[in-house]
Amino acid sequence: MVGVGVTPNRGGHPFVCSDEAANRGDNPLFAAMKMQIEESSCRSLRSGSRSRISLRCSSSSFPVADMDGGAGPSLYPLHRCKTIHLVRHAQGIHNVEGEKNFKAYMSPEYFDAQLTQLGWQQVGNLRKHVQDKGLLKNIDLVITSPLLRTMQTAVGVFGGDGYEDRMDVVPLMVANAGNSERGAISSLNSPPFISVELCREHLGVHPCDKRRNISDYQFLFPAIDFSLIENDEDILWKADIRETKAEVAARGLKFLNWLWTREEKEIAIVTHSGFLFHTLGAFGNDCHPEVKKEICKHFANCELRSMVIVDKGMAGSDTSTTNYPGKIPSGPDLPSDVADKLLEKEGPSTNSEEQ
Questions:
Q1: CB-based burial label for 281 (10 Å; 0-12, 13-18, 19+)
Q2: Where are the stretches annotated Disordered (predicted)?
Q3: Per-residue pLDDT for 300 more than 90?
Q4: Of the residues 13, 85, 89, 94, which is catalytic?
C-alpha cells in the first residue's frame, strides 16, 4: 500500500505521507530526508530536541538512475510498514462556542467537552464510510485520546452495533455517557480499544482539554483499556502553563515512535486538531506543495486520513507473514544476470576468436 507514510531515519524516527496523493496521476511516493526542526515554526520541534526525522517525496517522472537518490518510485518491505487511520474527534460543544467567541476555550463550562448532537451525526456518517470502504474489518486496534469527545467519537465510529445486555460482554460506552442521549455501544465484533495520553490535545490553560479521573472514564467506557495511563488524576494539564507548539510536536513524534512497539499492522487513532497539526507539520518538506498541504492542513471535525508509517531505522523486529522463501523443494537455480557476469569474466568465446 502506498499512502501518507511516516518513515524513520537512522535514529528510528518515523515519517508520514498520503493515500490520496499516492493514487493521483503524479503518484508521489515517500522515502527519507533530513530535517532539523526549529522552535520558531509551528511545524517544527525545538532546536536541540531528541528527535530528528526524515522525509522525501518522489515522482515517477524522473530517470531510473535517480530513484535511489530520492526521485522516482520507492519500494519498501511490507512487514516494515503500518497503516494508520488518523481521525479528529467530531464536533464538541467547545467548537461551537469557540467559533462564536474564541475566548470560550478559556471557560470552565467546557471542561472535558462532550460531542454535540451534530457531532454524533458526524460520527454516524464516518461510521458508514468506514463500513462501506471495508476499513472496520481490517483495523487491528483503535487508539484514543483519554478525553470525552475523542472516546465518544472512537466508540461511535469503530465500535460494535447496538448493545444487548449480556453478562459476558461489557459495552464500549454505557447509555447516555457524557450526556450523549445515545444508547450503549457494544464491544462485540469490534477491535480492541486502548487510551493513550501521548495523543492528547495541546495541554494546559484550556479547560476543554483537561481530562476527568480515569476511574470516571472506566465507568463510562468499560471496554476501553486504560492500563497504559499511570495516574488517575490529570497531572499533565496545568491551569497556568500552555504546552508550546514545539513540545506538542515532540510529543507527537514520541507517539509515532511508540507505535513501533505495537504488533498491530493497521491502527485507527482518534485524537485532536492541534495534536495532529503540530505533529504532521514536521513532515512533507521535500514533497510537492500540494502533497505537503494534504499532509499538514488542519483536520475538520470527524475527518479521517489514511497514512502509512515506514520503519527505515529497523525499529521494529517483525518478520514478514506473507514473504515465501522459494526453492522448495530445492533445485538448480542460476539467475541469468549471474550467468552474464560469469560470461563477462570468461571473455570472448572460442567460436568468436576463430571467426
A1: buried
A2: 320-355
A3: yes
A4: 89
Chain-centroid distance of CA 128 in Å reads: 20
Which backbone phi and psi does 186 adopt, to 5 degrees? -80, 150
Helix and strand element counts for the chain (H, E): 10, 11
pLDDT average, residue stretch 285-302: 85
Residue 1 reports pLDDT greater than 50: no
**Three cell numbers written together for 341:** 557476469
Distances (CA, A) of 58 to 2, 55, 67, 122, 240: 12, 10, 8, 35, 44
- For the question of residue 94 being annotated catalytic, the response is no
Q: What is the mean pLDDT of the chain?
A: 79
Burial, 297: exposed, middle or buried (Cβ in 10 Å; 0-12, 13-18, 19+)? middle
79 assigned to active site: no
Options 13, 85, 97, 201, the catalytic residue: 201
pTM (predicted TM-score): 0.77
